[in-house]
TrEMBL record:
UniProt record similarity statement: Belongs to the SIMIBI class G3E GTPase family. ArgK/MeaB subfamily.
GO molecular function: kinase activity
Keywords associated with the record: Chaperone, GTP-binding, Hydrolase, Kinase, Nucleotide-binding, Transferase
One Pfam family it belongs to: MeaB
Species, as recorded: Fusibacter tunisiensis
EC number: 2.7.-.-
Name the record gives this protein: LAO/AO transport system kinase
Keyword Secreted on entry: no
């Protein structure tokens, strides 16, 4: 089966197979991506993040349906917490989007976070490229919802949608403190609940501290379950895209994203090299014991590991 040819023909099965390959670290998968990379860069990538229980999946579902009515093809990558026993995704966002999975213009994939604290699976950026090459107009990346460590989502997306809900109590301040700066558009979901307007006001107040930013993120009130405010939310995302293009920020954001990705890949490769050359971590474990026993400082341990690898820093 020629995955490359079928992917360029918008074949969803070819996309699914290639994503599985990159998730499993199959060199063939990355070789295909290297070949087809010039065909990527056309899709608009939207990150959807927020605390657990904010209704991210329901809101994503409604936005996808709205874009489908406009004739757009859409893909969704739902990054789930990973089972500590099987390594597989356990939330199963696809279960909550079953009717979408029957739409030929929609592709949905759940991916395990695999212990990655940024809320994003390490293979997510590769999966985004696969779906981009397949011809998706929009790609939604919905994250685990782990609070302050969601910062990684910015490195994969063109627009980041931050979803909040009323009733979070004191937790909302901690959540905001870490992630307010990554949101390009804010949505207060479940806006029919008590405290929704207060939550919106609090977000607006937090945004007032970023007066030096040219783009002031809009705060939209939505009720996803009733399809309320969805069109306005999509319009806000389009406005953010237009702002970035008009102010020559769109390309610079993608350059920053590419830089972050390259650095992340370098880190991963160095880590693999260290573990591969350490006889299944035995040498590394030995250094770690010496560091823990205060016989060796961690800085000298790094120098020794690099010397063992014959790598100059």
């Amino acid at each position: 089966m020629d995955i490359e040819k079928r992917l360029l023909e918008h074949d969803k099965r070819a996309a699914a197979r290639l994503i599985t390959k990159v998730e499993n670290g199959d060199p063939e998968g990355y070789k295909i991506l290297q070949t087809l990379y010039p065909n990527s860069g056309k899709a608009y990538v939207i990150g959807v993040t927020g605390p657990p229980g904010a209704g991210k999946s329901t809101l994503t579902d409604k936005m996808v349906k709205a874009l489908r009515k406009q004739g757009k093809t859409v893909s969704v990558i739902a990054v789930d917490p990973t089972s500590p026993f099987t390594g597989g995704a356990i939330l199963g966002d696809r279960v909550r989007m079953t009717d979408l999975s029957m739409d030929p213009g929609v592709f949905i994939r759940s991916m395990g976070a695999r212990g990655h604290l940024g809320g994003i699976s390490e293979a997510t950026s590769a999966a985004v490229k696969v779906l981009d090459i397949m011809g998706s107009d929009y790609i939604f990346v919905e994250t685990v919802g782990v609070g302050q460590s969601e910062i990684d989502i910015v490195k994969n997306c063109d627009t980041t949608l931050m979803i909040m809900v009323p009733g979070l109590g004191d937790d909302i301040q901690a959540i905001k403190a870490g992630v307010m700066e990554i949101g390009d558009v804010f949505a207060v979901n479940k806006a029919d609940r008590d405290g929704a307007k207060r939550t919106a006001r609090e977000i607006q107040m937090m945004l007032d501290f970023n007066k030096d930013k040219g783009w002031r993120p809009p705060v939209k009130m939505v009720i996803a379950t009733e399809n309320n405010g969805i069109d306005e939310l999509i319009e806000a995302i389009h406005q953010h895209k237009a702002y970035m293009i008009e102010n020559n920020l769109f390309e610079s954001r993608r350059v920053e994203n590419a830089k972050s990705e390259v650095l992340e890949l370098i880190k991963e490769r160095i880590e693999r090299m260290i573990l591969d050359q350490s006889q299944k971590e035995e040498a590394l474990d030995a250094y770690a014991k010496r560091v823990a026993g205060r016989e060796l400082d961690p800085y000298s341990a790094v120098d020794k590991v690099m010397m063992d690898m014959k790598v100059k820093i």
